[in-house]
Structure to design on (146 residues):
């Protein structure tokens, strides 16, 4: 199946709507945070390997936690316990509330990287085919262990 390549902006808009990064039609999530295995429209597999998006999720959680820690040090409420409670509730709400959006961004970034890698790989194969010597044995510049 040949698809027209989308721009980076289009792919990111699709992920913000929690749609398939390739076609923009299929939903990413079955429920609030339960990811479908594949797009129902174009059959794109959202995570080629289990855990492909963990690093992005970890980094964004760490960044959000950093902002929350900064907020805790810069805010000086008159009632310390009320301020602490507010910051903790805000932290849990922000970190948990943004999980689906951050996951969809991670899937879109993984898609962008895989498309870029596939294009580079195809270009390299084309160059190798074009630059390959035309001999009967089909050898190339690499050493042979025969």
């Amino acid at each position: 199946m040949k698809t027209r390549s989308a721009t980076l902006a289009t792919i990111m808009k699709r992920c913000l709507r929690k749609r398939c990064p390739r076609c923009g039609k299929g939903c990413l999530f079955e429920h609030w945070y339960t990811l479908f295995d594949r797009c129902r429209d174009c059959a794109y597999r959202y995570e080629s390997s289990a855990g492909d998006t963990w690093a992005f999720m970890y980094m964004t959680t760490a960044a959000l936690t950093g902002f929350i820690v900064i907020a805790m040090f810069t805010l000086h409420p008159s009632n310390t316990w009320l301020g602490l409670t507010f910051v903790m509730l805000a932290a849990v709400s922000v970190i948990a509330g943004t999980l689906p959006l951050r996951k969809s961004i991670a899937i879109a970034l993984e898609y962008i990287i895989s498309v870029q890698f596939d294009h580079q790989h195809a270009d390299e194969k084309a160059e190798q085919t074009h630059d390959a010597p035309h001999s009967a044995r089909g050898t190339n510049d690499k050493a042979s262990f025969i």
Remarks:
- The chain has four helices and no strands.
- The chain has one domain: 8-127.
- Residues 134-146 have pLDDT under 50 and may be disordered.
